[in-house]
Structures are given as C-alpha cells and as structure tokens.
Amino acid sequence: MNIQELLHQALDLNASDVFIIAGLPVSYRINGNVEITETDKLTPADTEAFITQIYTDAKRSMDHFKATGDDDFSLSIHGFSRFRVNTFLQRGSCSAVIRIIRFELPDPKKLGIPDSIMNLADLTKGMVLVTGPAGSGKSTTLACIIDRINHTRACHIITLEDPIEFLHTHQKSIVSQREIAHDTESYVTALRATLRQSPDIIQLGEMRDYETISVAMTAAETGHLLFSTLHTSGAANTINRIIDVFPANQQRQIIVQLSTVLTAVVSQQLIPAIDGSLVLAYEVMTVTPAIRNLIRDNKVYQIDGMIYSSSGPDIISMDNCLLNLYNNGRITKDTAIAYATNPDMLNRKLH
Question: Are the CB atoms for 216 and 229 separated by under 8 Å?
C-alpha cells in the first residue's frame, strides 16, 4: 500500500487522523477514538518509505525534518483532499500523524456551531479568541466564521496559519492566506507586515508566545478585527494565560489593554454523543461592560460565576450547553458530568 491508498482508506473510514508509527499497524482516529487496524505492524523502513512519499507528494525537502526531528506542513492532493502533516522521530524511527482536511468548507449547522458563535462574523473590531484542547475543532470554527465574512462583507481578510488548513476562495471579500515558514518567516514577522497590508480581518493561527500576543493586541487596538486560538479552557483561564505571559512589570498595562480590545472568548470541546459520533460543546463569553470592568480591576476570578449565572444568548456557560445536549438526548448524563466545568452543580441540575 502506498501513501495515497492509505489516505483514501482514511477518507472512506471517515477518520480525522492517521497514525504512521513503527511497531504498530497503520492506525486511525475515528469519532475521537484511536482504532488500530488488523494489518501488519510497520517497521522503521516502512514508516520511512511512507514519509518519504509524503515529502515527495508535498514537493518539500526533508532537510528540516532530518535536522530537527520535527516538521509540520500541509499536503494537497488534487481532486482528493488536503492534509496537515506532522512528522517526528520516535525512538529513532520516522513517524507521522496526518490530520485530514476536506476540500469543501464545513457547514456550521451540520457541526452544531450555534448562531451565538457564527454571529461573531458581524463584529468589525476587537479580538475574538477560540480556545480549547488540541483536536477540539478550533480551526474548523474559525474557518466557518471566516467563510461567513467572505460571503457577506466586502473586505480584506488575511489569514496567518501554520500550516494552511482550509482554502478560502475570494467571494465578496479578498482572502489572502499566508503559511508560516513557506510564505513568511514567523507569526510575528507576518503579523507586523499585515498591519501595512490594509487588512480588515486578521486570522492568526495561534497566539503562541509573548511577542505574538503583544503584536496581536496592538493589531486589535488599532481598529482591526482579529481572530486567534489558544490551548486553554474557559474564558477566565484564557484571560489569565494572556496576562501571565507578560513580565510582572508589564501586567498592569496589559490588563488595561486587554479589557479594551477583548470582544469575545469561545471555549469548545468535542465530546462523545450517544450515537457514537462527536458533538460540539461550547462556552461563549461576549465581553460586556461589566466583564470589561472585572478585567480592568483584575477580578478575573469573578468572570466564571458571571458566565455560569447568565441566561442570555451572548453568554453561555459550558455546563448549560452540556445540560441542553443532555436534555435533547444527544449525550448521556455521565458524559455531561465528565466534561462539566462544575460537575457537582451540573449533577444537581440533572437530577
């Protein structure tokens, strides 16, 4: 079996990821679970052959991978699909995890992305953060929002991604998609250049470090609408993570700046549904004047309570979303409690 046959099989199985690791058969992640196929175990020579094919198909040199032991890039097979590839050395042998990205842009309704999230496309300025653990669908949610903007507004959208996942064609908007290390040196370099490229909307793949976060906040402060992601759970944790990235002597300034530019935080996770699929659970915090004051006064610890007690459409707690999913017969009671922010409180509500 060559790499293209393997990837075709992954698509037929509706897998989200493919694992090519020596000592195991080819494995797939399907509906959140890793499933090991009943084929022969891969040898180091097998995995090296697969990964060499991937680099050949991607028309990419293996020099960086051989020098560092890690590489991250995209692969597009015409008329077939796109893939996000992460190659790495594991006990001295070549390994890869391949994320499948379909050519067609996802349908937010089929994915269960609610209007409270999709309506963030109507914003004109500020910073919107989509957060959650790896594999929780953050990139997919952002792709849906960008697609909504692209079809409804005449503006310039610039995406900075590592690597590019979903391809956007120009509709009402101009969409410029730049891949880190391929089209530009780094997130920081690209983000600084973006401010001179007449953007209306900026999508920053991930806010990874102090310098990137600092430039991103400046971009939002100068009147642009900026979307980005963080590997955090919950609005309060997200705000604290941003503040803690900065040195202590800068944190007061950052708190004030963040209270001004932050517009919304979406936290999401993909959880097992009763029918064996995965369902989206989410928390939405649209920043109100009261929340701005809590951030400015460094009372971030009070935000979770405000979200939990809110009943409006623009502020939805994770536990209320889980409660709705349970009431609608999508998830079991045990699943709701396992993924809850406050399991004891949710357990009482379920009873």
Answer: no
Query: What are residue 286's phi and psi, to 5 degrees?
Result: -85, 130
Tell me if 272 sits within 8 A of 331, measured CB to CB: yes
194-251 pLDDT, tens per residue?
999 999 999 999 998 889 999 999 999 999 999 999 999 999 999 999 999 999 999 9
Structure tokens at 285: 């915090």
What CA–CA distance (Å, rounded) separates 180 from 186? 6
How far apart CA 282 and CA 144 sit, in angstroms, is 15
Give the bridge partners for 175, in sequence order.
157
Name the pairing type of β-strands 225-230 and 126-131: parallel
pLDDT of residue 182: 84
> Angle at Cα 115 formed by Cα 109 and Cα 118, nearest 5°?
85
Q: How many CA atoms lie within 13 A of 343 on its CB side?
A: 7
Locate tokens 């597009």: which residue? 76
Q: E strands along 103-192, which residues? A: 126-131, 156-161, 174-179
Q: And the tokens for 52?
A: 């060499």
> What's residue 1's pLDDT?
78
Pairing between β-strand 93-101 and β-strand 81-90 as defined by DSSP bridges? antiparallel
Distance separating alpha carbons of residues 286 and 235, to the nearest angstrom:
10
Q: Can you give the pTM of this predicted structure?
A: 0.88
DSSP secondary structure string for all residues of 144-160: HHHHHHHHH--SEEEEE
d(CA 57, CA 48) in angstroms, rounded, equals 14
Q: Radius of gyration over alpha carbons of the chain, in Å?
A: 21
- Residue 76: what pLDDT? 87
- Let me know the angle formed at the C-alpha of 133 by 149 and 182, rounded to the nearest 5 degrees: 60
